[in-house]
Write a structure and sequence with these properties.
Length: 489
């Protein structure tokens, strides 16, 4: 092709591309100005929040999914968060929801609230799961959010389920986009955000605490499901009385999903037996109460804290209860045993010297006989520790000694306390001035044992509790005899 024709062809190609780009820009501008009702909602395109597609086997969605509230007024409980006149409700109704973290136990309504926000918002709503997504997906979503803001002038509302599963690097990937306003973040978590969400991200979000539903609220929820013929169980399940509903509600740990799942499980039994179900049938379906517990999460530390503080307060009944809560939920009994050994020294100390022996014996007994009988050995130790006199004098004394030891780590050992194992050491003064206590009638000497800078320092100061009262008298006696021998206070 001649050079001039080649240049002409290249110029025409550039014009064609420019024309296509112009049409694309025009289409984008037109779409941005089109009322939201005239084009498909981006919320409806989101898989996690879209209406369930028909299943191949025509099975309905689970009851908990069908009964999920669709409007704020349908939500049971949480009135202090989304009730009339609350800040969050006003923000939802005005579509001005900023970045928030929804923190609450399972079945308290975190995902439900996010779905309601999704239906109401005019923002580009993107659901996201920390369980199945990683840093690559986060960056892809952030790029899309930036494009939405630049091309359409629309912010992105990003819902991150189980945000606590993201590590620090993954959470930090949100920061610049939350800061710039490209993204408003809605995080949902069952774990304490103070521990599981980075401080930088948490400072840019409002924490919304959803409380555990009460048994009475769960009963209302179950009645609604039993009376609903379209989405619920009306005509499929009849419960004998409210007593049965209350029985189930008290075993649900405030989890709405839990009670609805149990009711759904009872449907097949009711269909076969053709009679109302009661507590006996519920107990059979339930088998065992599902205790709210996570051996690595906040609830683990909440429960061990409750046990420790009940023991310290000498509340034997509360101590037994919290022990049972932990063991019956599946906590490692040896972890509890180790904590009891620690408590025996830290909070009972020498007020009852036998406490440490009891705690260690309980640990050994459990290790020897195992479950379930070994639980009683731990219970025995808990009762003993709860009723024992309490003193933290040993704990405080060691703390003061450790502080001085760290600050004066190079303080030399006094010569009289050094062992002169060689002739040279004896010539250097090792052991000079040492007084052997057994050579004296009172088994006491005037020899100083602390470094010179710390002379007179008192670390262990016993209380008047239990055996420490005798130890205090003994310390006072040693002081008197020492002074008589010329020892300094």
């Amino acid at each position: 092709m001649p050079p001039r024709l080649g240049l002409l062809a290249a110029r025409q190609a550039r014009r064609a591309r420019s024309a296509r780009a112009g049409w694309a820009e025009f289409a984008i501008t037109l779409l941005a100005k089109t009322p939201r009702a005239n084009y498909p909602s981006l919320v409806e395109q989101a898989d996690l929040f879209a209406p369930s597609s028909p299943r191949e086997d025509d099975r309905p969605a689970p009851l908990a999914e069908r009964m999920r509230p669709r409007e704020l007024d349908e939500i049971i409980g949480q009135d202090d968060v989304i009730g009339a006149g609350t800040t969050l409700r006003a923000a939802i109704e005005k579509d001005e929801v900023g970045s928030i973290v929804l923190w609450g136990p399972p079945g308290s309504g975190k995902t439900t609230l996010a779905r309601i926000i999704a239906r109401r918002t005019r923002s580009h709503f993107v659901p996201f799961s920390a369980v199945t997504s990683g840093i690559k997906e986060i960056k892809d979503v952030m790029r899309e959010a930036e494009s939405q803001r630049r091309l359409f002038g629309r912010r992105t509302l990003l819902f991150v389920d189980e945000i606590h599963r993201f590590n620090k690097a993954q959470q930090d990937a949100f920061l610049p986009h939350v800061e710039s306003g490209n993204v408003s973040l809605i995080g949902a978590t069952t774990e304490n955000p103070s521990f599981e969400v980075t401080a930088a991200l948490l400072s840019r979000c409002r924490v919304v605490i959803l409380r555990q539903l009460s048994p009475e609220e769960l009963v209302v929820l179950m009645r609604r499901a039993l009376a609903d013929g379209e989405r619920g169980l009306a005509g499929r399940l009849v419960v004998e009385n409210d007593e049965a509903l209350s029985w189930l509600a008290h075993r649900a740990n405030g989890d709405a999903r839990f009670v609805l799942n149990v009711l759904e499980a009872l449907c097949s039994l009711a269909r076969d037996e053709k009679r109302p179900v009661g507590i006996a049938e519920m107990e059979n379906a339930l088998q065992r109460k599902a205790l709210l517990y996570d051996k690595t999460g906040e609830e683990h530390f909440n429960l061990i804290s409750a046990l420790h503080k009940s023991l310290r307060s000498s509340d034997v009944n509360a101590s037994l209860y919290w022990l049972a809560r932990m063991l019956e939920a599946g906590e490692d009994p040896l972890y509890v045993a180790r904590r009891l050994v620690r408590f025996a020294s830290e909070d009972v100390g020498l007020a009852e010297p036998g406490a440490l022996a009891v705690a260690v014996a309980a640990k050994e007994a459990f290790h020897f006989i195992g479950l379930p009988e070994g639980k009683l050995a731990l219970a025995q130790a808990v009762v003993y520790l709860a009723l024992a006199p309490k003193s933290n004098a040993l704990y405080l004394g060691y703390g003061k000694a450790a502080k001085d030891a760290l600050e004066d780590a190079t303080e030399p050992v006094p010569l009289q306390l050094r062992n002169p194992v060689t002739k040279a050491m004896r010539e250097w003064g090792y052991g000079r001035g040492y007084e052997h206590a057994h050579d004296h009638p009172t088994r006491l000497t005037a020899m100083e044992c602390l470094p010179e800078r710390l002379l007179g320092r008192a670390y262990y100061e016993p209380t008047e509790e239990g055996f420490e009262k005798r130890l205090k008298s003994r310390i006072e006696e040693i002081g008197r005899l020492g002074r008589a021998l010329g020892k300094k206070d």
